[in-house]
Every structure is written in C-alpha cells, then in structure tokens.
C-alpha cells in the first residue's frame, strides 16, 4: 500500500467510508495539488484488497460541456451488466450513450429516471461484490452526469455501493450543492511538508530546501515538482530584483492557476502583476520599511480563488505563492516593464523600492538610473539586504553609460556577493567585466583570493597574489581607487592573520607602510590588533569603543572586522548586543559570510562570559551554516573553538578529536591561526586533567617562556596556561620569567582579560607573600574581573592553594569554596574536582554548593539546621510536631541534595553559604 505523509485523519475517514456497511457517498474537497488523487488511490487500494469492484472515472475540462460524458466513463466498465437488463432499463442507458456520441434521440431521460436506473444497475452489480465508484476531478464533470451521480449518491444506503468524489475547493462544481458529506483536505503541516520533501528529495541544499518549502507552503504537488526547477545546473537559485527567489514554475504547476489568470480582464491582470512584482505577501515589507503595493478593484480575482482578503486589515493578498509566481511568468516583457514603471512612481519616497522598479523598467543604458540603483544598494547592505544589493549593483552596471562606471559597479557587486558567501557568483561577476583588461583586475584578485582562502585555506599563495596586486596599483601611474586599494589591504591583513606567519606579516607591514595615507585608520586598527596585540595593540581600544557607539550605520563587514579587533582587545562585550540583534537578519538576506563570523564572535563572548551552554549552541549553528556554504576555513575555526570549550569542560576525548580534525586540515596548509587555537585547546584539556607536562608541551608550541611569539593571536591569551604548566612541572624559573615578561610588555594596560591573567601569573610566581597578596587583590578588584569568571576562578584556586601552603587554612577555604562554586556553575568538571580536592586537603569536609542549598525547601532547611545542632530525630519531631519517621524521611532526601552521607557533615554543609560571604 502507498505511504502518505501526514493525512492521518483523512485516511481514517476514507478507510471508514470504504469499510462501512451499506452504501455511502463522500466528497473529498481541497486546493489544486493538495493530494486529493493520492487519497483516492489510497481508498481504491483498500477497497481492492477487500474484494470491492473499483470503478474509476476522471472529469476532463474539455468534456465538461458534453452531456453525460462523465457518466459514460463510469458505465463503460458495466456494459456487460447493462446488456443483461430488461429492455426498459437498458433503453435509458442507451439514450445516454446516444447523447455522448451525438446520435439522434427522441428525448433524454430525466435526472430522476436515469438516477433510479443507475441505482438499480449498481444494486444488481453489488449483489455479487461490493462496489466503489471513484470520481477524480469531479469539478470538471459535465452538469448532467454530476446531477445524476448526486441524485444516486444521496440514495445509495441499502446496497453495498460507495461513491467517492474529489473536487477542487477553488473551482465551482455541481457537487457543491449536492448535499453529500465532505472531507476537507488542507495543506500539509510544516513538519509533514518537510518530511515529504526530505523523503523524495533527500539531497537538497539547505537554501534550496527552504525556498521549496516557502514556495510550496504545504502543497504536495509543489513539494514534488519544484526541486528540479528551483536551482539551475550551477546550483544557483534565480532571484528577482529584490533578492527574493524567482522560482521558475514547471508547466504542471503553472496550470494550477494559469487558466484563471488568463481569464482575468486586462485591468485586473495588471493589478495582480503590480502586486506580484512588488512582493505582496512575500515578506519584503519589513526590510524596506514600506508596505507593498495595494491591489485595488480585484473582486474578480478574489471570486475565482486567486486572492484572499486579510480578515484584520482588509488587504488582498495572493492565495498562494505559486499564484504570484504564475502571474509574473505569464506576463509579457512589455507588461512587466510597464508595471515596474508604474511601481517606481508609487514608491517615489522609498529609495530602494523606487530604484529597483526604475531599474527593471529601463531598456537602454541610463546613467541617472544607474546612480540611483548604486545609492540604493548602499542603503540595502546597511539594513541587512546585501543579497538584494548584489542585484541592484549588477543592474546598475548593465545600465551604466561608460565602461569605467560599469567596471566599478561590477567590482562592487562582486565584493558584496563575496560577503553574501556567494564566492562563485563574485568570480563570475568580475569575469563579466569587459573593461578589466588582459591581466587580472583588482576585483578579480579579491574574488579569487577570497574563494581560495575561505574554501581551501590557501593562505600563502593568496598572500602573494594580493601583495602583487597592491604593488601594481601603488607603482602604476594610473588613477587609483581608494576603495579598491582598501579592499585589497583588508584582504591582505585577513590572509596574514590566518597564516600567522612572521615573514608574511612583516611583508604585509612593510607594504602598508609604503602606501602611506592610502591605508585608512580602520585598516591600521585591523593590522595592529588581529594578531600581535602585545606589540601593536596599544592605543586602539578607544577608537574601537567610539565605533561601537555607532554600529547601526556601518556596513556588516565593517562591523565584524571591528568586532574581531574588539575580541583581541577583550572589549567584545560592547559589540555583542548589536551582533545579536542583526545576525539572523544578515544570515537570511544580508552578508551571510559576515553573519557566520558574527556567530563565531558571539560564541567567543559567551565563552568568555561563562555562558558555555549558549556558546555550544551558537557554535553548532555556525558550523552547520559554514559546512552548508562550503566555508571550510570558518568551519574549522569553529571546530577549533569547540575544542577549546570541550577542553575547559574536561571533555578530553572530544577536545582531542576536534583538535585532530582541525590540525590535519590546517597544518599542511600553513593556517597557523588555527593550529595555535588547537594547541591552546590541547593545553587547556591537559590542565583540566592534571597532565601538566602535556600542557606545557602544547603551550610552548605557541610561544616560548619569557617572550610572546610575534603575530601569534594565542601567545598572550595562553599566559596562565604556560605559567601554571611550568610551575607544576618544576620549571618555576621559566614560569616567573614569563609572568615578568607579561608585566614588562604592558599587558595590564592592553586589555581587561590580559590584565587579569597577568596579575594572576605574577601572583602564582611571586617570591614573597606580600607581592602575591597585592597581585591577587589587583586581579580580584579589577573592574572587569566578573566578565571573565573562568579566569577569575583559576586565580582564586591558585591563591587558595598558596594560602594553604602558608597555613592560612580559613582564608584558603574561603577562596577554594568560591573557586569550586564558579567551576561547578560553569561546568568545568576537571577544575571543580581540583578545587574540591584542595578543600579536602585543608581538612574541611566537601560541602554542598549554594545551588544545592537553594534546592532545600523551608521545612528541609529547618530540619537540616536542627540535625546539624545535634538534635535527634525524636527531638526534632517534638519541636516541629512531626513523627520521628517523617523527620528521617526528610533527612533521607536532604543528604543527597547537600552532597553529604553523614549527619555529622551537615554543619559544614550548611556553613558553605557563610564562608562564601565572609
């Protein structure tokens, strides 16, 4: 039996209809393509399996005016039975056949006479075996046949005869007034639609899959037909001028609404075309901040089921996305241009919408329209519409009057396309620039280098290409575009960051110095902070903080670049609210590549803030998108950060697995930025497990003690790891040397996190208690200390251990308790266990955390307190008017909540809170 996705209720009703005793009639009603035929097939299959005679017919639009054409289809299967009827009954059916074949007849029988004859015939047949009459496309059945079947359907109650008719909800038919029971069939639920699509088209890319689901809106026929037409042979999805998917409909789907659209008057058809081209019901209004075109005087289209009326606003909208697509595809080019011209006037006050329609109405090159389109593209990118901006710039290039303007606009279109993660499209756009000349143009260098870097991790060869392009522009006597040079400069800095290679970085710095004023302040910020903040990061926090106050007016790629600098200077928290507000918008309609980077940055800030569960979710979301878009570099970067998170949580196996995946991809390609991150993850995992020698070996892979490897993003960030690993492996002199190097390099003034861990390193390696206490107090009292809970907990743990060694057990316990509490809250299992071990060494019993104390009820807290004071169960019961047995039951529940097993440990457990606040 066929498998239908969803439709459980409908299948149950049809099965009951077929298996019921006696005769029954049922009409299945639903939109075009909703799966009515599949349900009829399901019912017919059940009937055949249970021994029914199944007789099928299908209404045909071309025969809808032929009297009794439909009834003839049904009767043809019963000709032997008709031949055995007495003459009077047989003559009634002969008249029907004569009418079908246009023979001369005296007078056609009445509906009642023919209906009675049909009931008699069906009763005779059903006496041998039950009968199921299945009529598909009943809305196209000729009126005479529909009337007879309706008459018979209302009366087949005694004989085992079932009538099953399927009609469309949006096409009037004689069955609408037949007074037969109905089964409505609606669109599939979102879950069932996704299941059907995945079952029939399992290999669809995420974006293609989403476009199909959006366009089909639960229509099974569309779900099955669209996938082959949404993406072209190159995998690209066609888009309209607004960046919306422009889905080409196959003929079968166009027929769903095409006949009704073609039958509209010219005026109504023109209104529908303007609504379709302006995106009515397509979700554009929110981004453009302007409502779409309001179609007027379209009652005709509402009446024939093409439009619906919104119950709240009273606006008309397309009944289904396929209607909108059909309207556009059925219009002629001249009709579309005329509609665009009219819409351009409607939206004179909306720059983006006005520009789109103006550009689509133009035929010949028009410099003024091209300028309007280019200006609108800039506004679109800042509002999260980078995908639409690519279309605007491409159209502006097509309408440009000079080769120079065309080349410039194509270059910008390619640049924006690259940031929408459409690196292939960016490459095609620069190749279409006829004015680029014989050699590689700067735009083509940007496009090919981005493609090679982000998809293949080719850092070293792309560095050579971009360097050569910048040198050529610098040395040429031609006019130089500041925008073009800036794109190349930022790309060169990006490549240098990922390579993390001393030689490449020195080449980059020398080249930037040779460009003088052509290098913008923004580019100097990036070049000074993206890798070696120890030597070049000083003084850039203030410009970044100023930029953070005005992010809404920045291009999305500028926001992410500034935020990367903020991460290295540990002020990313100032950028995080904006990133969280816009990231989903960018991922859907904007700079998708920037959106992926935003997710990585949000994850890093969540990691720093101790929101580790949220960081895991954000990273997994980023990894899914990066993998789908083929962004291998970013995908491995996300895996590297996930390895760090796993290491901090003490998940050594997972950390090693991710570390191996990233290292095997990045090291052969020379992507030092990623190998350093996984080395840092290896050090953190080893420290969490107490394997200090391994931690030391990982740490010195990043930087040697007493120095900070130039152009290494992790050199300063792993300061505590190297110091602690050195101390625990008998390398105290190296640890002290490294802590002093951090102080002398001015790390305390560079960033809040570097200040915190520098104080911690100096405290750990101090020769006397006075310095250790001073450095600890500097860390504890730092204004930003609470923003880095894991680092602060490590410093408290280390100082608590030091205090224990100098016999100040009470002070040590207070710090160790706070450290253990922080590690437990974070989920840093290995570190929490170390803190608990140190607490045991201080001779204090392991205590419950405040989280567990908070889980006690008021009654349980009273009982625990009384038991801790030494009272027996009987004494507690007397005090609280409880039985000793009830007191014992309460204590049975209290012990595991507080993490104790003995009555004597209750006092220490309950004193935890006092020690935290001491």
Automatic annotation (TrEMBL):
<dbReference type="GO" id="GO:0006355">
    <property type="term" value="P:regulation of DNA-templated transcription"/>
</dbReference>
<dbReference type="InterPro" id="IPR027417">
    <property type="entry name" value="P-loop_NTPase"/>
</dbReference>
<dbReference type="Pfam" id="PF13191">
    <property type="entry name" value="AAA_16"/>
</dbReference>
<dbReference type="InterPro" id="IPR036388">
    <property type="entry name" value="WH-like_DNA-bd_sf"/>
</dbReference>
<dbReference type="GO" id="GO:0005524">
    <property type="term" value="F:ATP binding"/>
</dbReference>
<keyword id="KW-0547">Nucleotide-binding</keyword>
<keyword id="KW-0067">ATP-binding</keyword>
<dbReference type="GO" id="GO:0005737">
    <property type="term" value="C:cytoplasm"/>
</dbReference>
<dbReference type="GO" id="GO:0004016">
    <property type="term" value="F:adenylate cyclase activity"/>
</dbReference>
<feature type="domain" description="HTH luxR-type">
    <location>
        <begin position="849"/>
        <end position="914"/>
    </location>
</feature>
<dbReference type="Pfam" id="PF00196">
    <property type="entry name" value="GerE"/>
</dbReference>
<dbReference type="InterPro" id="IPR016032">
    <property type="entry name" value="Sig_transdc_resp-reg_C-effctor"/>
</dbReference>
<dbReference type="InterPro" id="IPR041664">
    <property type="entry name" value="AAA_16"/>
</dbReference>
<dbReference type="InterPro" id="IPR000792">
    <property type="entry name" value="Tscrpt_reg_LuxR_C"/>
</dbReference>
<protein>
    <submittedName>
        <fullName>Regulatory LuxR family protein</fullName>
    </submittedName>
</protein>
<dbReference type="GO" id="GO:0003677">
    <property type="term" value="F:DNA binding"/>
</dbReference>
